[in-house]
Protein 1
Amino acid sequence: MTQAAPTRTDAALDRWLRMYRRMLMIRRFEEEANDLYTRALMPGLAHLYIGEEAVAVGVCEALAPDDYITSTHRGHGHCLAKGAELDRMFAELLGKRAGYCKGKGGSMHIADPDTGNLGANAIVGGSAGIATGAAFSALRLGTGQVAVCFFGDGALGQGLVYEVMNMAALWKLPVVYVCENNLYNEYTHNSETLAGDIMTRGPAFGVPGERVDGQDARAVHSAARGQVARARAGEGPSFLLCDTYRFMGHHVGDVSREYYRSKDEESEWKTHRDPIRLLGEALIAEQAADPAGLDAIDAEVSADVARAVEFAKNAPYPSVDEVDDDVYA
Amino acid sequence: MTQAAPTRTDAALDRWLRMYRRMLMIRRFEEEANDLYTRALMPGLAHLYIGEEAVAVGVCEALAPDDYITSTHRGHGHCLAKGAELDRMFAELLGKRAGYCKGKGGSMHIADPDTGNLGANAIVGGSAGIATGAAFSALRLGTGQVAVCFFGDGALGQGLVYEVMNMAALWKLPVVYVCENNLYNEYTHNSETLAGDIMTRGPAFGVPGERVDGQDARAVHSAARGQVARARAGEGPSFLLCDTYRFMGHHVGDVSREYYRSKDEESEWKTHRDPIRLLGEALIAEQAADPAGLDAIDAEVSADVARAVEFAKNAPYPSVDEVDDDVYA
Amino acid sequence: MSMPETETVVRQLTLGDAIREALAEEMRRDSRVLILGEDIAEAGTVFKVLTGLVEEFGPDRVLDTPISEPGFTGIAVGAAMTGLRPVVDIMFGDFIGLTMDQMVNQAAKIHYMSGGKWKVPMVMRTTMGATRRSAAQHSQSLHAWFCHVPGLKVVLPSTPYDAKGLMKSAIRDENPVAFFEDKMMYKLKGPVPEEDYTIPLGAADVKREGDDITIVATSSMVQVALGAAGRLAERGIGAEVVDPRTLWPLDETTILESVRKTSRAIVMDEGYGRYGVMAEIASVIAEQAFFDLEAPVKRIGAMHVPIPFSPPLEDATVPTEETVCEAAEAMCG
Amino acid sequence: MSMPETETVVRQLTLGDAIREALAEEMRRDSRVLILGEDIAEAGTVFKVLTGLVEEFGPDRVLDTPISEPGFTGIAVGAAMTGLRPVVDIMFGDFIGLTMDQMVNQAAKIHYMSGGKWKVPMVMRTTMGATRRSAAQHSQSLHAWFCHVPGLKVVLPSTPYDAKGLMKSAIRDENPVAFFEDKMMYKLKGPVPEEDYTIPLGAADVKREGDDITIVATSSMVQVALGAAGRLAERGIGAEVVDPRTLWPLDETTILESVRKTSRAIVMDEGYGRYGVMAEIASVIAEQAFFDLEAPVKRIGAMHVPIPFSPPLEDATVPTEETVCEAAEAMCG
Ligand SMILES: Cc1ncc(C[n+]2csc(CCOP(=O)(O)OP(=O)(O)O)c2C)c(N)n1
Ligand SMILES: Cc1ncc(C[n+]2csc(CCOP(=O)(O)OP(=O)(O)O)c2C)c(N)n1
Ligand SMILES: [Mg+2]
Ligand SMILES: [Mg+2]
C-alpha cells in the first residue's frame, strides 16, 4: 500500500474497528453458508462475497441507518454491512419462516425496510432503477436520505444502468453507483465484455466517477464518504469503481475454476490482497489494534455466527398455506 | 461557413451535383407527403425529413449499393438517399399494393433488400441491434459490407444503443452510428433529456466519435467517408454526431409548435441553415454550378415526384385476403 | 349499470378528460402522486390527455423523461417503494416490451419476495387499440402479457365514467397496476360526475342486460358489443354485455352469473386472437358454467397477424358489430 | 409415438446432450449457424449444455457476450436478416422480459412489415421450470408471452428425442423461433438416434394412448402426465397423453382427435395458472370439441403466485402426479 495511513482520531479508531468486525462477520457468515451448502443443508445456491468485504463495509460505513441500498445476487455482504442480523439472514438462506422474507426470497432476495435495504436482486443490473427511484423519493420528499446502488462489473453490460444514470444526473438525484469490479461476469473475464475505458462511462452520462482499491476498506470508505456527502448536499449522483476479487467460485457450486481463471491468480489475491488481513495488519502496524484484540473480535463474531446458524437450523419452515399470501399488498 | 471549400475534381463535382439532386428529391418528396396529408389523401401520419437532408445524403453517398442502413420513424430521407424509387415510396405511404412493403408497412417501416435498406423503424433506438447485427454478418461472411445505423438524439435515451456499441467495439464490427441531433425528442428539447457530454458516450464504449455540421452535406460526407473506410478496413465502429434541425413539425400534424420552440429559432435555421440552399450557393460561388443548372435539376426532380405521386394515387390497395400473408416466411 | 341513477344532470366528458380529471384530483388529494413519461409536461402527451397538469402541479410532479422506458419504469418502482405514488406514462402500449423486466421481475414480485415487507404502489398508464393507421409497432393491445403475471393488476376502462373511477382506485391501490387506455376512445364522451368516486378493482359491470346471450367485452370492444347488442335487439335477440373492467382481479362471479342466465357466451378483446385474454375468460366460462352452456363459447378478437398499415387490411383485423351479430345469430339460431 | 420402432439399439442421451448434438450437427452442416450468449463458450453455459462446442467451432461461432440480453438479441435479429442463422442463448427464461421489444417489435414483425421481403431465421434458446430453489426471478416459465405474438414460433420439447429433432427444425426454419428447455429435464435420458432427423414444427405427438381421458401436457409436464397415466391405468382409467411439442404452430387436429375419442380433457403446463398457455388449449378444445365433451376441460398449471424460495412452498406451486390423478378420477367418476 503506497497510500498514507489515514489520520487517527478516536472516532476514526472506533470506525476502523467496527469495519474490521463487520468484515469479519461477513467472512464468517459466508464460510458458514458454504459449509451449509457443502453439507447439503442449504437449498439452492449462494454467491459468496468472500474477498470483497471491504467494498460493502467501506461504503455502508459512510451511510446513515435510514439511507438506502440495493444489492445483487451476491448480496449477503451488502445486507450485513447495512445492519442485517445474522440469525434472520441464515434463516432466509434456509427458507425458514423466521428469515427476512419469511423464506420466500432466499439468498438472492434479502430485503429489509428497517435497515434501508431495498433488496438483493437476481437480475443483473435490475436494481439500478430501484436505487435511482429511492434517491428520487428522498429528494422529492426532502428526507436527506442517500441511495447506494451496488452492482458488479457484469452489470455494466445492461443498458438500463446508463438510462438511469442519465436521469440521475439530469435530476441531480442523491445516488451513488458502486461498481464492484471483481474482473469476472460468472465464468467470463471482463476483458471479453467491456470495451472502452469504463471510468469514462459515468461521466458520459453526467455522473462523475472515482476509482479506488476495493481491498482497502479505509480507502473505499473515504471515497464513499465524499460521494455520499456530495449526494446529500444536493450535488447529484456519482460512480465509484472498486477493484476487487471474489476469492471463491461464482456460486458455492463453482469449485473447478481453472478453465476460466488460474490458481495463481486466485492465490495472489488471497495471499496478498485479503481486505480483512490488510486492515488487520495495518491497524497493528499503526498500533491501532493488537493481534490479541483482533483475535478476540474473531472469537466473538464466530460465536455469533455459530449461534445464528443454530437458530436458523432449528427454525420451522413456513406453513404451506402461506404460499399465496403476500402476492398482493 | 468557415470551412475551406473541398477540393474540386471531376469525380467530386459529379458527387456534389448528385448529392444536390438527391437532397432536392427528398425535399420535394416530403413536401408532397405533407400535401397529401393536408389534403387527407394519406392515411396516418408521417415524420418529415425536411431540413435534415444533408445527413442522409452525405452519409449514403459514402456507401456502396450493397452496404446496409437502418432507419427511423423519420425515414423517408434515408430510404431515398440509399436509392429507393419515388413511386414505390409514395405507394407505400398510401398503403398501396405497389409500395415497398405491399402497403403493410407504411411510412415508418419502409424496407428494401435491393438497396440494402434493413428498414425504417418505429421503435426509437430499436434498429441499433439490427444495424450492428448486419455488420456482424458482413464481418463473419467476409463480404466487406458496412452498416450504417441512423438514429435521432432521442435514441440516446435507449440503453440498447450502448449495449450494442460495446459489442461492436469488442468485436470490431463495421458499423457507423449516425446520430441526427435535431435538438428535439418530439416536443421536448434535449437539454431536458441528455446529461453529460454526448460526444464522450461513444468513446466510453470503445467507439470513437466525430461531430460535424449536419447542414453541410460535403462535411457530413467527408466525415462519413472516413468512418466508412475505417469500418471497411476492419478497424471497427464509429459514432458520427450531426448537428441538424427539422424544419417542420415532429410529424405532419404538429403544426402549432410555439409551446416547445420559437418561431425565431425555426426561421433562423430555415433562412440561414438550409442544407440544400447552402450547397447550392456554395457550388455557385465555387463556380461548380450555375443557377440555371440547379433550377433544371429542380424541374426534373419535381416532375419525377409529381409522376410518382400520380402513380401511387392510381395504384390499387392490396386485396383483403392478403392480410394474413407474410406473417411467416 | 353502476352510474348513479339519482344524478340528474351529469357533465359529459371525454374519456381522455375523465382520466386527466382523475389524475388531477388524486394529485391534489395526495402530494405523493406524480407522473413520469415522455412529452407529458408542456406537450401534455401526444394524445393531449395530460394537458394542463404541469401548469397546475409543476415540473417536479409532471416530469418529462428521456426516451428511456426501462429506466424510468425502474425509477418508478424504486420511488413507489420509498414513499411516492408514481404514475408512469408509456406512450404506446407497444413499448411495454421494453419495460417487461422491470414490471415483471421487479414491480410484480417485490412484495412477495420480501415476504410482504416492501410495497410497490405505482400505476403504469399506457395505450392500446388499432385502426389509427399507425402500423405494426404502434397499434398493439398487449395487456395479456401483464394479466399472466401474478403480482400485477390490470385495468381496461371502456367508458369515461369507469375511467375516472378506476384510475382513482388504481392510484390508491398498494400494488403495481397496469392501466390500458384505448387511444381510439379518448374522444368518446359520456357522463362523469364531478365528485370524487372510485370503482373497486375486481368488479365487472353489466353494461346492458339481456337474456339470450352474454357478450363479455373489454375496452373499446364494449362499444362494439353494445352496438351489436342494439342491432341484435332489433332481430329479437337479447344480448347482455358484461365488461370485466379489470382483467386482474377478474370478477368471475358476475361473468358466470350472466352466462348461467343466458347459456351462451361470446368473448371479445382487441388483443391478438391467440393465447390472449379471451382464452382465459372463455376457459373460466367453459370450466365453471359448462353444464349451463348451450353452445361453445365463441372468441372474437383481433386477427392473429401483425397489424398492417394499409387501411383496408387494418380494418379487416379488428372485430366489427357485424361479425358479432353474425356469431350471435348463429349461436342463438 | 414418433420414435422410429425399427431402431433396435438406440443410444440413450440426456436432453441436454441431445440439444448439444443437434446444435453441433447443424453447425457442421451449415457454416451460417452460430451461437451467442453469456458464458456459453469455455463455460459451455451454466447448465453445461454447450460444453465442447467452442472447442470444435471456435470463438467466432460460439460467442461469449456481455450481460446485454436486449443488445445481443437485437444483433441476432440483424445477423439473421443478412445471411447468418444465429442461435441466441438466454440463460434463464426469466430474462426474456429484457428481450421482448427486440423479439416482438422487431424479430416477429419484420417479415410482415417488409411485405415479405426480409426474413429473420433465428432461434432463441432459453430455459423454464421451477423446483430448483432458485426463487422468483430464476424459475419462471414465460413462454405464453411469445405464444401470443404472431410472427414467432414456440417450441417446448419434452424428451431428448424430440429435443434433437425439434432443435434442427427450429434452426432450419426461416422464422424467429423461441425454444424453451426445462432446466430440470437436462439430465433426463432417452433414446436419440445418431442420424440426422427433424421433427416438423406444428406436429403434436401422442406420448401414450388411452381411451378415457386426454391429458394435453407441455415440456416437463409431459413426464408428470405420463407418471399420472401409469397410476391411472392401475385404477382402470386409460389416459391418453398428447404433447403439442410446438405451441405455435399448434396442432389442433391431433389434440381434437384425441379429445373427441376420450371426451374428457386435462391441460397441463408449468406457466403461471392464469392467462397462460393452458387457457388457449382449453379454449380450442371447448370451442371445437364442445359437443363431444362429457365434462369441462380442467386446467392444471403452476399456482398463480411468484415462485417462492422455501422448498415446501415452492413444491406446493407445481402440479404433481397426484393432483392429476385426483382430477382425472373425479372427471371419469
Ligand atoms: C439479466 C441477467 N442476465 C444474466 C444473469 C445470470 N447471471 C447471474 S450473475 C451473472 C454475472 C454477474 O457478474 P457481475 O455483475 O460482475 O457480478 P459478480 O457475480 O461478479 O459479483 C450472470 C450473468 C442474470 N442474473 N441476470
Ligand atoms: C421506444 C419508443 N419510445 C417512444 C416512442 C415515441 N416517439 C416517436 S419519435 C420520438 C422522438 C424521437 O426523437 P429523436 O430520436 O430525436 O428523433 P427525431 O424525431 O428528432 O428525428 C418518440 C419519443 C417510440 N416510437 N419508441
Ligand atoms: Mg463481476
Ligand atoms: Mg431529435
Protein 2
Amino acid sequence: METLYAICVGAMTTGGVFLVLRGYTFAVVLGLTLLSYAVNLFLFASGRLVVNGAVILGESDNYADPLPQALVLTAIVIGFAMTAFALILALRARSDLGNDQVDGKTQIYDELPNKARNARQAGDD
Amino acid sequence: MDLMQHLIFFPVLLPLLAGILLLLPPLNGHLDRQRVAVFLINVLLLLTAVALLQKSIAAGPQMYMMGDWQAPFGIALINDRLASVMLLLTALLSLAAHTYACAGDDGRGPFFHPLFMFQVMGINGAFLTGDIFNLFVFFEILLIASYSLLIHGGGKQRTQAAVHYVLLNLAGSSFFLFGLGVLYAAFGTLNMADMAHKAAQLDADDIALAKSGALLLLVVFGLKAALLPLHFWLPRTYAFTSTPVAALFAIMTKVGIYSIWRVHTAIFGDYGGELAGLAVGWLWPLAWLTLVAGVVAVLASQTLKMLTANLVVVSAGTLLLTLALNDVQATAAGLYYLIHSTLLSAALFMIAGLIQEQRGQSQDRFVRGRPVVQPVLLGIFFMVAALGLIGMPPFSGFVGKILILQASSAAVDAAWIWAPLLISGLAAMVMLSRAGSTLFWRAQGQPAQSDGAEPLKIVAVLLLLGASPLMVVFGGPLSELTLAAAEELHRAPVAVAEVMP
Amino acid sequence: MTAIFRNETLFMTLLWIPLLPLLGTLVPLLVYRFGRRVTLALTAMPPAVSLVLVLSLMPGVFNGEVFRWQMEWIPQIGLSLAFHLDGLGLLFSLLILGIGLLVLLYARYYLSERDHMGRFYAYLILFMTAMLGVVLSDNLLQLWLFWELTSISSFLLISFWSQKTEARKGARMALTITGAGGLCLLAAFILIGEACGTYSLREVLASGDLLRNSAAYPVIIILFLLGAFTKSAQFPFHFWLPHAMAAPTPVSSYLHSATMVKAGVFLLARFYPVLSGTDLWFAIVSVVGLATLLLGAYTALFKHDLKGLLAYSTISHLGLITLLFGLDTELAAIAAVFHIINHAVFKASLFMAAGIIDHESGSRDMRQLNGLMKYMPYTATLAMVAAASMAGVPLLNGFLSKEMLFAETLHQSTLGSLSWLIPVLATLGGALAVAYSLRFIHDVFFNGEPVNLPRKPHEPPRYMRVPVEILVVICLLVGIIPDITVGRLLDAAAGAVLQAPLPDFSLAVWHGFNMPLLMSLVAVVGGSILYINRRHLFDFQGQFADIDAKHEFEKCVQWLTAAAGRLQQLIDNGRLQRYITWLVMLSLAVAGWPLLQLDSAAGSRAEMPLELPVLIGGALLLIGTVTTVIFSHLRLLALVMISIVGLIVAIAFAYFSAPDLALTQLSVEVATIILFLLALYFLPQKTPLKESTTQRIVRDLGIASAVGAVIGTLCYAMLTRPLASISDFFIANSKTGGGGTNVVNVILVDFRGFDTMGEITVLGIAALGIYKLLAGMRLYIPRADQDGQSWSKDKNPLMLALVSQSLLPLALLVSAYIFLRGHNMPGGGFIAGLITAIALVQQYVAHGVAWMKERLNLHYHALIATGLLLAVLSGLGSWLFGRPFLTTWFDHFHLPLIGEFELASAMVFDFGVYLTVIGATLLILANLGQLTTSERPKAGEG
Amino acid sequence: MKAVFPMPLHSALLLLVWLLLNGFSAGQLVLGLFLGWLIPLITAPYTDHQSRAGKPLLIGRYILRLLWDILVSNIEVARRVLGRNRKLNPGFIAYPLALTGDFPLTVLASTISLTPGTVSVDFSEDKRWLYIHALHIDSEDAIISDIRQRYEQPLREIFSC
Amino acid sequence: MLSSVILDSAIMVTAGLVLLALLMNVWRMLKGPSVADRILALDTLYINSIALIILLGLYNGSPLYFEGALLIAMLGFVSTAALSKYLLRGDIIE
Amino acid sequence: MDDVINIAVALLLLTGGFFIFVGSVGLMKLPDFFTRLHAPTKATTLGIGSVLMASMLLTSLRDGGLSIHELVISLFLFITAPVSAYMMAKAALHKKVEPLQRTRQRELSSRITRRQPPE
Ligand code: NA
Ligand code: NA
C-alpha cells in the first residue's frame, strides 16, 4: 500500500511541477493546486499510514499520528488562501498587462477570440 | 496581571491586534487615525524590542510557551540576543518605513495600514518562533502580507513583478512543506531545540531523510535570502514596488538568512553529529556565485532603485558567505553586516523614491534629467547611504566589511571570499558614484515647481541613516553584542541538552 | 634614537590636532553668508590653532619624543582611536596645515562669486582633517579610515564644478582608482594585522621580521603597494591625476601636489622599516618609481595645458620619491623624505602661479600664453624661481634632494647587473625635468606675445600672491641654508622612517665636484638641448595618437556596464519559467543527493497489503492527475479533471484515518472550484497549443519526473520507517488537558492553536490582498463564450434559485452541527465556516449580487477582523490568570433536564476561526463575483 | 410571532434534522429548539417563497407514493439501461402545467426528476410548460397523464392552487 | 456468524460495484464528448463516492465517515451547479 | 435477530450497489447526453438510498439504538439531485449538445433552450 501511495504522490508532484513550468498563469496556478495536493499527501505521510485509526479517543486502539493531520489542515487552508491570491493576481496581470502569460509578454500569440473580446469594461476609467 | 511576563509575545501580538483593530470601527476608513495608531504600535514595538534585548543580555535566552504546554509539545517563542536584535532592527525599519508611507503613499490603495501591521507580525513571528512548522506559518503570513503590500499602489510593472514573486514563492512554499514533512518523519518533533538535541543521536537510517529535509529547507530559505540561482525575483520586486514597501522589504531577505542561522547553523551546526555542517558544501559555491551575480547586476543597473535592489543581492551574497564560513566569528560579522545593510538599503530605497519624485520624467534613471528640487539635502542623504553601502568610512559599512574580512582571513581559501567582497565594494563605488553624479549633477532645465520632500519622508530617511554612524560610534558594544549572539546561536544545541531531558 | 612613549590624557593635545579641523568643517557652512573675508578668517582659525598645537609639540618631537593618545573604539576589529606624533607625522602635519592655510588664503581670491565658498572650504577642511588623520594615526584601521576619507573629500573637491562633464568624470575616475587602491590597502592592513596580531601601528612597526617572514608577505606587499601607488599616481595608475586637474586650482596645488598624492609615499615611508628590506620590495618599488619618473617627465614635456604639465611633472616627482624608497640604502630613504618637503613646496607654489595665470588671463594653454613677463612680472619671477627649483637648479631646494638621489643611484645593486641603468635613467629623468621646466618658463613668460587670450593679463590681487611668495621664499631658504631650516625636521622625520639611528649625512649645498654634480650638469645641459630641439621631439610625439585616459576610462567603465548588462540578460532573462526551473532543479539536487547515498529507500517498517479499493482509488488519482496535465490547455476541462484528484485525496484522507482532513479537503475543494470558475470567466478559455516547443515539453517532463521520483522515493522512505514522535503526548493529554476527544481538533485549537491563529491570519490577509487586487481592476467581460455563442438569457434559473434558498437553513444547521461537535468528533470551526460560506456563495450563484446585497450587507473585512479578534481575545483571556497566551480553560457542567455539557475557551477560539473563514471566503468569492456588477470593489477604501 | 418565528415549518424541520443528526436527548432538544429558532430568523430574508403547505397527511401520502414509484420504475429503467440502446426511444416532452407558484413547480419538477426515466429539463418562460426528457417513450400522453394524476394533482391539493 | 460473513461479503461486493461505477464515471469523464457530459460524470462521481464512504464506514464499523458523506452530498451539488452555470452564463455570480 | 438484520443489510447493500452500478453503466453506454443524464438520479435514488438504509440498520444494530442520521444525507440528495440534473440539462441545451437523432420531438430542444412554449 505504501508503494502505491508513494507512486501517487510522486505522480502528482510530477504533474504539478510540469504545469508550474508552463508559461501561462492559469496552468501555473493549476499546477500549484496539483502540487499542493501532493504536498498535503506527503506531509500527511510523515505520520505514516494507519487504516481505521482516526484519532478520536475511544474510537480505536491503533491511532494514527494526529500531529501531521493538524499540520496538513493548516497547510490546506494556507494553500487555499495562496491559490486564491495567485489566481486573482493572474486576473490582475491580464487586466494590467493585456495577456495571461507569466511574463506579461506575448510569447507566441495571445489567444482570445476576437468575437469574444468586446468593449464592455468592468473597471473605473 | 503581570504584562511583562508576556513580553516575548508582544512583538507578534501588538501588530496582530493592531492589524485587526484597524479593520474595525473606529479605525477603519480613517487614514489619519490609522496612521497614528500604527505609529504608536511601532513605537511600542521599538520599546518592546529594547526591553527584550536588555532582558536577553541580562538573562540569556527565555522561552514563552504558547498555551502553557511544555516544550517540545507546545509552540515555543524564544527570545535570545539574536532574536531581539532582529526584532529591534525590524521595529526601527518598520517605524521608518511607516513614517515614510504616511506622507501619502499609504492612501494609494485599500488596507495599507493593516497589511503593514500583518507584515511586521509575520516577520517578528519568524524571528521569535522556536517551532519549525510555526516558522512555516509565519513565513506564509509575511509572504501573503508582502504579496499584498507589493501591489499597493498598482501599476503594470508592479503587477508583473508580483506575478513572478508570488508564483515563485508559492512553489517555494511547496518545497518548504516537503522539507518539513521529511524532517518530522525523521525527528518526530517540530521544536527546533528538540531537533537540535536529537540531531546527533539520529538513527542511521533516518540520516539521509534528515539531510534531504534540511537541504530542502535550505533551498526555501535560500529563496527568501536571494541565494543564487533563486535570487531572480528580488531586483524587480524591490525596484518596482512602492518606496515604503521596498524599504520594509529590506528585512525580507534577512528573514531567510535568519532562518538558515536557526536551522542550519544551530540544528545542523557543529553539534549535529553526522549531520553537522550539511549546508556548508552547498552554500559555499552558491553564496559565492550570488555575490558575483550581484556584482554583475549592480554594474548593469540603470535606475537607482534597481541598483539598490541589486545591492541587496550583493549584501545577501555577502551574508551567505558568512554563513558558509560557519563559525562564530563569521556569524557575528554577518549579524553586524546584516543590521547595517538592512538599514542602509532601506534608506537608499527611500532616497531613490525622493529622487524619483523630484526628477520628473527621468525619475531615477541614470540619464540627464531636470535637477532635483533639494540637491543639498538629497545629496547628503545619498552620500551617506552610498558610502555606507560601499563600505567606505566613516559609516557603518566599513566595520561590517572589516569584520567579515577578519572572520574569513583564517579560512583556507580566504582569497575566494576577499576578492569578491572587495570587488563588490568597488563595483558599488563605481555605480553609486556614477549614479550620484548623474542624478544630481547631470541636469538640464529647471527643477520642478514642487515643494520638495514631505517632512515625514525626511524624518524617515534620517531615522535610518542616523543609525549608520551610531553603529560606528558604538561599534564596540554592538560588535560585542553580535559576538555574544553568535556564540549563543552556535552553542544552542549544547544549551538545549542542558535543559532538555 | 630611542623613542619616548607617553600615553597620558595630557596628550589630548594630540587629539585636538585633527579634531579641530574636523569641527572646523562646519564653520564655513555656517558662516559663508557673512562674506568672504569673514568666512576665510573663521575657517582658517581651527587649522591655525592646530598648526600652533603641532608647533608646540615640535620641540618634543625634535628631542625624540613620540606623543600618543589612544582610546578603545571597536576592539573586536582592532580599531582604536589612536594618534601619535613622531617626526614623520610632524613633517606631514606641518605640510598639511601650513600649505593648507596658504591654500585657504589663495582660494579666497581664486574662487569666483558664483562658486559656493562655504561648500568649497568645507570640503577642503574635511580633506585636511582626513590627511591629518592619515599621518597621525597609530592604528592601521584608523589610518585606513582616514585614507578613504581623503578619497571621498578629494572626489567632492574634484567635482566641485559639477556642471562640467570633465569634472564629474575626472572625479569619478580618481575615486575609482584610489578607491580600488584603498580596498587593496585595507586587505593589506588586515593581513598585516592578522600576521602581527595587532593593529597598533607602533606594535606593527616593531614586528618587521615577523611580517617579512610570514607566508602572506608577498601578498601583503603587493596589496600594500597597490594602495600606495594608486594614491601617489604611480605608473600604471598615474592616469587619473592629470584628469583630477578639472578641480579648481587651489585643490590641485593642495591635494595633487602637496598632500594627497603624498599619502602614497607617506605610506611607503611609514612602513619602510617593516615592509622594505626584501628583494621583492626593492625590485617593485624601484622599477615602478623609475618608470613613473621617466614617463611623467617625458609626457610633461608635451602638455600644452599648464596644469597638465604640472600634473605630469608631479607624477614624475612622485616617481622620483618612490624610486628613492626603492633604493636599498638608508640615505635614499632620507633623500626621499627630503624631496617630499621640497616638492610640496615648489609644486604647490607652481600650481598657485598657474592658477593666477589662468585666473588673470583666462587661459592655461601654453600656445596662447606667451610673454607674460611683461604683464605680470612679479608673479612671473616667483614662478620662475619655483620652476628652477623643480628643474633642480642649485641654490634651490629641488637641487638638494635631486643631488641626493643622483648620489644614491650610484651605489645600487637592486637590479643586479643591470643596476647601472638606474643612474643613467635618473639622469635622463633629470634632463627631462629641466626641459619641461624650461618650457614652463620660456613658453609662458617669454616667447613673444600672447595669442587670443580671453582677458588682458595682469598681476593678481595682492593677497593672492602671498602664498606663492611664502613658498618661494621657503624654496630659497631651504636651498641655501638647508641645515638650519629643515635639518632637525628632516632628522626627526627620517628617524621615524628608519626607526633606527640615522646614518651620517650632511645637508650642504656644496659637496665638491663629484659624480652627482656631474650628473646634474649633464641633466641641465641635456635638458636645455632637449628643449631647444623640441620641434623634432614634438614631431616625433605627434605621430602617436593622444590617448585621453579619461575618455578611455569612461569607455572602459561603459564597456564594463554594457558587458555586465549583456551578462545580466544572459543570467536573468526575466522569464519566470527559468526562475522556477532553477528552484525546482536545486530542490531536486539537494533532496536527491542524500538519497543517492542511501542503499535502499525501504526502511524496517512492514508494508501494509494492497487492497483492491485502494488500488482503484490510486488508479483514479493517477488518471485524474494525468488528465489534468493533458487537458491543461482546455482550461475548464482541466478544472473538471482536477476535481477528481481533489475528491480522491479527500477520500484517501478519510480512508487513512483523517476524517477532519477529509472534510476540510472536500469543502476547500468546492470553494476552489468556484474560485477557479469565477476567475476563468475573465481568462482565455484555452491555452494555445503552441505554448511550448516539443523540446521544452520533453525537458520539463524530464525535470518534473525527476522531482516526482525523488519526492516519491522520499515519501516511500518515510512511510517504511518507524516513527517515534511527540504525538503520544497529544493523545494522552487531549482529553485531560485539552478537554476534547478529537485529538486533531484539540491540537488545532489548543496544543498548536498558535499555528491555527497564524493560519486564519493568512486567510484574512489573503482576503484583504485580493480585495486590493480587485479594486479598480479593469477586465474585458466576454459577451460570448469561446465558441462565439452568446450567453444564456436565463440569469437565475428557477429551480436553482428556489432550492438554493431552501438549502440555506439546512446548510447552516449542518455547519452548526459540524462546529459544535468539532472538539470531540470530526469537524470544527474551520470546516463549519467553509460550509456556511459556501452556502452563502451558493446564494450568490443562484440569485446574483443585487439580491444578496439587499439581504446580506456585511463588511466582510469587518467580519474577518471580528473573527480574528475573538480568537485573539480568547487567547488573551488566560492572561487574567497569569498564564501564557492561548492557555485554554474548560469544564463540565451539569444542568437539570439538559444533562452534562462542556464549555471551553477553545470554543470561543474556534468561533473566531469560524467567523474569519466566512469573512475571508466571502470577501474573496463574492468580491470576485461582483467584478461584473455595479458593486465592484473600489479603490481607496479601508 | 412572525418576527420571532418567521418560518415555523422550517423551524420544525430543522429541529427534526438536528435530532436526526445528533440523536435524541434533552440537551440536544434544547439546542435543536434554539437552532430551529435562530436559523430561520437569520435566513428568513433569503426565502422568497414561503411555503403555504399545511396538509401533513397529503404530504405523507405524496412522499410514500414517490418512494414506491422510485422503487418500481427503477427496476423498469434498469432493464432498459442494461438492454440494447437501439430499443430505446428517448424523447422530449412538453408538459402543460396546471400547477402555479414557483415552489410547487419546483417540487413537481424535482419529483419528476427523482423518479427514474424522466428528467425535468426546463420551464417555459411563462411557467406554463415543463419540458421533460424521458429515457423511453412508448406513449407521450401516458407519461403526461401519469404525471398529472400521480404528482401534479396531489401537489395542487397540498399547495391549494 | 454466517450472516456476518454474508454481510462482509456483501459489503465487499457492493464496494466492488461502486468502484466499478467510479471507473465508468471516470471513463465518461475522459470520453466526453461534451463538457456537459463531463460535468455529469463528475456529478455522478461525487454521488457514487458517497456510497463508497458509507461502505467504508460499514466496513470499519466506524461512525466517523458520516460527515464526509454528508458534506459530499451538500457540496457536490454546489460544484455541479456552479459548473453548469458557468456553461450557461460564464459569469457564475452576477 | 442479528442474522435477520445482517441478511437484510446485505440485501439492501447489494440492491444499492446494483443500482449504482446500473446508473454508471447507463452513464457509460447510453447514446447521448440526455439519456445519460438519467444516471445520477438512478444512483442517488435507489442506489444511495439503499446503501444508506443498510447503514442505518446496521449501525442501529451495532450501537443498540436508533441511528438514522443517514436520512439527512438522503434528504440532501433528494433535494439537490433534481436541481443538478436541471442545471446540467440547461447547460447542455444551451451548449447545443445534440440529442440522439431518433429522439422524439428533437426539434423541441431549441425551444426549450429559449424557454419558449411549444408551438
Ligand atoms: Na460575476
Ligand atoms: Na426521473
